[in-house]
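[job 4471] stage=fold_predict status=RUNNING
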Amino acid sequence: MKTPEVSVPVNGAPNNLSADHAGEFLLGGNLRIHRLGFGAMRITGKGIWKEPQDRGEAIRVLRRAIELGVNFIDTADSYGPEVSERIIAEALHPYPADLVIATKAGFDRPGPDQWIENGRPEHLRAACEGSLRRLRLDCIDLFQLHRVDPKIPAEDQLGALKDLQSQGKIRYIGLSEVTVAQIEHARTIVPIVTVQNRYSIADQSASDVLDYCEGLNIGFIPWSPLAAGDLAAEGGALDRAAAQFRVTTSQLALAWLLWRSPVILPIPGTSRVQHLEENIAAASVKLDEAKLRELGQAIRATDQARSN
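[job 4471] inference complete, writing structure tokens
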């Protein structure tokens, strides 16, 4: 679906765009954040490698996100690598008092679009120290294990994060791309406050993990939250529904996520201010619940039929 030249306001959304219209979530039962956050992976270069094409625009995106009420930013030491964290600090430090910055560790980056799991405890400790320096923080609010490295005992990886927590270098611990069984095992070692799995209206394969998180009030951060591929293509199911509701496909995908569960914390990322504002407008979109449920079920059935 072609993005409108003027993407906001939409569907009666107010002119005062704000992420707080998405509602709030208590991270770890303590940190109050708006449910619609910002993912800072795309403020790097092609292949999530080196500097962005337009560093000035990346800084403007981050500052505009704060102006629009975003108080939860997700990044990782591997984005760039190190580039995303440095730009966040350059753009926003000293940080607003209510801003929660989450970062991740657990990958080596030998080149563009190359990701190699590294869960060695010494690597995770060094990654945390590096993130603290680049982000100019004394303590990281949320430190997430980017992947559970199958080559290293999970106890060793989580034990390293537990030690960092006891040292006051990280406040809360999260996981990424895990199964329910892996979460349950991790929780026997250290409290887990968030899980970050791939999830969107077009890819609902992690629904069991989402349901588990909802039952325990664990924040569920869907990465790649905007539907892509055939389902978002012009003339596809999502495109047709977006046209009916008079919103963009991105706004509909985000509105569906916010409706799907109160523990979902979408973090759409972008390197352009216009696209950021389009995404934030989704916080104010009000759609019929029955139609959202029907749309999600229809797209899930289509996805399952394709995979069979």
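[job 4471] summary: The chain has a mean pLDDT of 92.
[job 4471] exit 0
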